[in-house]
Amino acid sequence: MSHQENRRPYDECLNEIRATIDGEPDWVANLANTAAILFLKLPFSWVGFYRVAGDEMVLGPFQGPPACVRVGRGRGVCGSAWENDRTERVPDVHAFSGHIACDPRSRSEVVVPIHGTDGSVWGVLDVDSREIDDFSEADAEALESVVRLLEEKIGPSLSASI
Length: 162
Ligand code: SME
Hints:
The protein has one domain (about 5-160): Beta-Lactamase. A hairpin with a 5-residue loop joins strand 5 and strand 6. It is built from four helices and six strands; from the N terminus they run ααβββαβββα. It has helices at about 10-20, 25-40, 75-85, 135-160, and strands at about 45-55, 55-65, 70, 90, 110-115, 120-130. It has a six-stranded antiparallel sheet with strand order 3-2-1-6-5-4, with helices on both faces. It is of the alpha+beta class and about 160 residues long. Helix 1 (about 10-20) runs antiparallel to helix 2 and helix 1 (about 10-20) runs parallel beside helix 4. Bound molecules: methionine sulfoxide.
């Protein structure tokens, strides 16, 4: 089913993420809990993070099936969101030139860039669905709100190297 955003509990997710990461400076722990909260509360097949490391991104905390470890700048949906520094909402990944098929069952996805305190892209939040056209603009905006919360609460730890 498509565009169920009105019944998707993003406010609950935001509240739980805020309560969980509050006062905790470790970004691995915070992104791991954020992925777990989103994965448990939302009907998506993969939720996770990639972080910029030189000229590629490396897989970070996630929930769902094992995923590709490294993504080059400009490659796939994640690499495009990084290169263009903008949210990518892809209704049909099979129609997206260069899509990286970690899970062949994945059909649509949203990728939101995450910024460090210097304003550059630190990494991305990647959310995948096995339903075609499963993300509305409202879903993308809600996931952007999650990223803004992370940037606000744990920005300095995102700017430090692991
Ligand atoms: N689909 C992504 C790659 C990451 S996996 O979906 C977890 C892409 O094309 O960027």
